[in-house]
Amino acid sequence: MTDRAEDGPGGTTGPTVRIGVLGAARVVKTALTEPAREVPEVTVAALAARDPARAREHAARLGIPRVHDSYDALLADPELDAVYVALPNALHATWGERALRAGKHVLVEKPVTSNENEARQLARAAEETGRIVCEAMHPLYHPLNDRVRELLAAGTIGEIRHAEAHVAFPIPSAKDIRWSYELGGGALMDLGVYALALLRSYVGAGGEEEAALKDVEGALAPVRTKDVDRRVDARLRFAGGATGRIVATMWGWPPLASRCLVEGTAGRLTVLNPLGPQMFHRITVTAGGRRTRERVVKQPSTYACQLRAFARAVTGGEPLRSGPEQFVPAMAAIDAIYRRAGLPPRGAGAEAGRVAGETV
Question: 119 CB contacts (<8 Å, ≥6 apart)?
């Protein structure tokens, strides 16, 4: 790590974490380089992609100073402290583990891996190397998530009985890698992981950090391409007795929509746009014959909150909200939902992913 960073918005002086990027994906701008401007604890220092020419073009566009000719060359860079894995889902486990064993801390795009077995392997590599691995589950790090959990923990709607999360983001192009089973595609993998994370966070408020899933009671997952779900609708039961439902779609309307509902013995709480609260959001609580609405601070973005948390975990050992303790059971739940819906869990495409385009 480099010398101490200057004070920034919401930040404190401290060591700067130098991050290298694996992949020339579109998400790098939104999830890393733009929020890094708000997080002085982080420097985005290098990038590598499958196509070196594309890597140079992408790095120039994003203002990343160094480009490596291969993923392995980036992992060997002694001037990097951490790696952001922005590759297709099928490659997250392979390159996340290689980065850990190269001595780097790892921030890996969601979903953290293709399945539970890969998640356990990645968690084991982090333990063996003494490095941090964090899934990029950015909504969990925003003050909106804190406020919802605070309201639920305070008993505002009584004991939680049921929770739902609905997310939609249409992907019309059949060429998008999210429609490829070999690359770990599917609505559940792309959007359902967010819905599941939010439910586990909300149902677990006031107790565990994330509620444990007991059973998948039912799941429907109509496909668009072979074994790739365009929509998933899963009914869940948590260990504490509460039920849950997640609905995620990459097909149809409405676009860019997300909302959550939590029902308790004394009322209900709804959250509008928990995935992008920096754009707009609203919490509505109906209890005791009254309805109240509130908004939490919009800025910084969910991505900036996540990046700052990752930097502080690396430099100061602060706990993460999407580390192995959270992502291993989450991937177990994803596998279980696929099986209940009659589809195979992801994970057959590691080799195919090696030659995939980086367009997530």
Answer: 93, 112, 113, 324, 327, 328, 330, 331, 332
CATH code reported for the domain at 139-310+324-341? 3.30.360.10
- Say whether pLDDT at 349 is over 50: no
Looking at residues 205-223, what average pLDDT do you find? 89
What is the per-residue DSSP string for 111-134?
SSSSSHHHHHHHHHHHHHHT--EE
Task: Please state the pTM of the whole predicted model.
Answer: 0.92
Which amino acid, residue 360?
V
For the annotated catalytic residues, the residue numbers are: 110
* pLDDT surpassing 60 at residue 265: yes
Q: Write the pLDDT tens digit of every residue in 30-74.
A: 999 999 999 999 999 999 999 999 999 999 999 999 999 999 999
State how far the Cα of 54 lies from the Cα of 68, in Å rounded to an integer: 11
- Taking a C-beta distance cutoff of 8 angstroms, is the pair 227, 142 a contact? no
What region, left, alpha or beta, does residue 10 occupy, with left being phi > 0 and alpha being psi -120 to 50 degrees? left
Whole-angstrom distance, CA of residue 342 vs CA of residue 31? 33
User: Is the predicted pLDDT of residue 295 greater than 60, yes or no?
Assistant: yes
Q: β-strands 105-109, 82-85: how paired?
A: parallel
Superfamily per CATH, domain 2-136: NAD(P)-binding Rossmann-like Domain (3.40.50.720)
